[in-house]
Amino acid sequence: MKTPSNELFQLIRSLQPQEKAYFKQYMSSFDRGKKLTSCLFLFDRLNKMKVYEEKNIKSEMAKKFHTTNFPKLKNTLSSVLLTSLVEYHSQSSITLQLNQMLSEVEILMSKNLLSKAASIIKKAKMIASKTEELDHLQMLLGFEQNIHSITNYPKSRIKKRDITKEKIELLEKERNLFMHQKNREEIYAFYIKNAEISRPDDIQMISNALRKADLLPPPMTFKAEKQLLNSKALAHYFLNNKTERYKFSKKFVEIYDNKGEDAILDDLRNYLIGLSYLLFSQNLLMKFKEVEETYEKAKYYYTKLSPKRRSAKIETALFALDINYIESLLKQLQYTKVIDIGETISKKYLKYNWVEPYGLIYLYYYVALSYFYSENNKLSLKWINRLFIFEGSDENKLIIISKILQIIIHYELQNNDLVFSLAQSLIKKLNKVNKLGLFEKSFLNFCINKLSKIKGAEEKKEAFIAYRSQLKSSPQELLNEKSAYSFFDFDAWIDFKIENRPFFDILSERSIKRK
After folding, report:
1. Cα(441)–Cα(331) distance, rounded to whole angstroms?
2. Domain positions in the chain
3. Which residues, given as ranges, of the chain have pLDDT below 70?
4. How far is residue 162 CA from its own chain's centroid?
5. What is the DSSP string of 205-246?
6. pLDDT at residue 395 in the model
7. Alpha-carbon Rg of the chain, whole angstroms?
8. Residue 380 to residue 426: CA distance in whole angstroms
């Protein structure tokens, strides 16, 4: 049986309050017949739902409006809703604005109203030139050329020649931009295909792309310059060159800063992405003062942008920056701040359904970890359990670590039966999907054979001392697999259980040693 589509429900959930209010206003402008009244009623019902239940709403619509074709009603509402959204965002989105102006020009020309068409073309060209919308600019020049081909004004021949020259110059800019985009995409496509740099020829391939970037003609547009800097930052990220990645990420942000506030707000999504890359690089180099400045800069420009222009893409870019900032706070052991920010932004993004579940897994994990490091195990367990609602069939690294943390929390809460059953279940599942690494195997066996059976303080201390010795004497291949350590400080937790003193003190000492 086909599962009912919840796409309309998800669309309504993603709307901001201003968009919902505009839709209501948009609907009120029509003479409301039965069809539109039922659409508005369906919108209100779906807007109030927490979980999509088509059977209930379908039954309710049938009783109230005698609706026999529910899928058609959903399509009608979806169509009207999208039309209102396009109208709402038409003045805040450059692309929508230019598309509308192109449509107007085409209609006016078909009716031979050339003077009015030329007036709109002039205005649209100014917008497209300022924002470097080269495709739109090329189409506008084509319309302008057509107008001068139709008219017999004395200056038309000269104007057509100027337009042809302008189109050739524009083609050169497009060609230049294409070369820089291609170089960037070659680097990114490599990563999409291989996921990580693991072989000598991988390094060679990325290094060659980096050299190629240096040989490309200088950027002719702001967009091309962004692509070049992005290519270099991306390549150095894959080559694990922290200093160079920081350098080019910083330059990427600086070219925006040099263009000024209006240019930043016109392209805020890409600016936020640039700030996110920069903040990540600052994290790696432990430039925490700069991290704070970068995050404050992002928040400043976000608040300067009118709510009408805050699209889901901008919200997603801001969320990525939030996550990078939280990672920085974790490195600085600022767990209370992580919890405060995590509580705030999780409500915001869940309310509007702006973020992919994968991003929320990171957020929930970091808040759970902060509660755990603060020795608040009950709240840590609450947050770690929340992220499993997003768990798919694939066991990614963070889900695996989250399940291990869940086991550890149950141990701290003295739920020994759960420690045994959860560890046994996880080891079987990871074995089945071929994702049981040597470190995970070692730790889960420790949970099954020792943790779940410890009875007294002395026995606990001996078990943890023995496990610490086992890890230190482990074969090199096991140590190489301890990528789990990037998500959780297992050594600090083991020391915490052996030394029986505040967890934060142990974490602080280890942080100082790392610096």
Report:
1. 27
2. 7-89, 399-515
3. 1-3, 31-35, 91-92, 152-154, 191-200, 391-395, 474-484, 514-515
4. 44
5. HHHHHHHHHHHSPPPSSHHHHHHHHHHHHHHHHHTT-HHHHH
6. 60
7. 29
8. 20
